Amino acid sequence: MNHRSMFLLGGVVLAILAAPGAAQETLGDLVASGGYDWIIGRWVAGADDGRAVEFAFEWALDKHMVLNRLQMGDFGYLGLITLSPAGEEAIDQGADSRGGTWKGTWSPEGDGLVRRVEHMNPDGETRKGDIVFSRVDADTLTIAIYAVESSGGRSGEPWSKLTYKRQPAKAAPVRAAAEATGRSANYQKLGDLISEGGYEWLIGKWVASEGDRRYELEYTPLLDMHAARADVKIGSFQYLGMVLYVPSREEIAQIGADNLGGAWKGTWEQDNSDAVHRIEYTKPDGTRQRLEHIYVKVDNDTLEVKQYDIAAGGSRGADRGSLTFKRQKPAPQAK
Questions:
Q1: Same domain, 11 and 40
Q2: Is the full-model pTM beyond 0.70?
Q3: 223 partner at 20 to 30 Å CA-CA among 23, 296, 313, 318?
Q4: How far apart are the C-alpha atoms of 41 and 68, rounded to whole Å?
Q5: What is the CB-side half-sphere exposure of residue 280 using CA atoms within 13 A?
Q6: Cα–Cα distance for residue pair 5/169, rounded to 1 Å
Q7: Cα separations in angstroms, 125 against 79, 102, 118, 243
Q8: Which one of 138, 166, 194 terminates a domain?
Q9: Is the residue at 120 inside a domain?
Q10: CA-to-CA distance for 39 and 152, rounded, in angstroms?
Q11: Both 99 and 18 in a single domain?
């Protein structure tokens, strides 16, 4: 691997790193050591009102990440589970199809797992809960949802408790968007801001080349454009992130991780016709680096990404160079 400085694309990293030192523990290592591999898969239950409720947990990035999906009627959720930058606990962040954002942590409880979450609605109101996953057998689990009181304690009785059955691995995937009904809430979503700013052209797959190195960048809409997925691939390096909008803070955020153990977070802003992504990257050893990427539309099929350091005071620092990407045609649909 060429020993070059990192080049972050579109708010996602192009990490061209020197060979790593001591191996870092991955989320997969943590799950395996605790014996929690049983939770991976697709699970379905029937709610009291007759609707199907579907959870799915899917490995990504060489087991550095789990994609956490939920679908219940027209409500959809997608989250990313990764190790915290310190590597001490599993953290979970995501968005839903009603403008809500979620963050939380995972911890063991008996033979099961607890996901403590904080949900923020589009108005900025927050509430906390515990989602308790209990293994019954290899193909059965129960999920109980409890309110968390202001003291931090769990309420005595669950708000909901359902029994889920494991589904075949090749069954239809969880839907990524709410399709059954339209939006009823009065709030802006990520798709609205993308349209208002004229950034729809960014959606799709882009490729750049430099010497014999190929850089792949792709943005995919999720959850009826309440969020977007960001993928980067450079050789064996991979990054997966999520772009989401927090209406109460009027902030576009991006979170993600890579298959070398790095953690990424940042925000997006508009600078005239350009899109600016400010990023903080935490390496597996805990050291951090801050960078700024500017996305410039050359034409409908050409994108230039410029990179700058972020100075100590937060201002734009030294110019780190740029790459030019070309749009790729979508893959043909399977018949």
A1: no
A2: yes
A3: 296
A4: 10
A5: 12
A6: 40
A7: 20, 12, 10, 21
A8: 166
A9: yes
A10: 26
A11: no
Residue at token pair 């790095």: 262
Around Cβ 15, how many Cβ atoms within 10 Å?
A: 22
Q: Return the CATH number at 200.
A: 2.40.128.20
Beta strands 251-258 and 316-327, pairing class? unpaired
What mean pLDDT comes out for the span 296-309? Answer: 94
User: Whose CA is closest to 290, among 307, 303, 270?
Assistant: 307
- Whether pLDDT at 146 is above 80: yes
How many structural domains comprise the chain?
2
Question: How many CB atoms sit inside 10 A of residue 131's CB?
Answer: 19
In a domain, 308, yes or no: yes
Q: What angle do CA 103, 97, 230 make, to 5 degrees?
A: 70
Query: Does the residue 178 lie in any domain?
Result: no
Please report how many Cα atoms fall inside a 13 Å half-sphere around the Cα of residue 36, on the Cβ side: 22
DSSP H stretches of helix in the chain: 27-34, 190-197
Q: Is the same domain home to 198 and 157?
A: no
Please tell me the distance from the alpha carbon of residue 86 to that of residue 286, in angstroms, as a whole number: 6
CA–CA separation, 217 and 257 (whole Å)? 15
Residue 256 shares a structural domain with residue 277: yes
What DSSP state is assigned to residue 167? -
Task: Return d(Cα 149, Cα 70) in angstroms, integer.
Answer: 24
The pLDDT of residue 248 is 86
Average pLDDT of the chain is 85
Buried-exposed string 133-167: b where 16+ CB fall within 10 A, e elsewhere: bbbeeeeebbbbbbebeeeeebeeebeeebebebb
Same-domain pairing of 265 and 322: yes
3-state helix, strand, coil in the chain (%, to 5): 10, 55, 35
| Cα distance between residue 103 and residue 119, in whole Å | 7
Give the residue numbers spanning the domain of 290.
Answer: 7-23+184-327
How far apart are the C-alpha atoms of 246 and 229, rounded to whole Å? 16
User: In the beta sheet, which residues pair with residue 7?
Assistant: 14
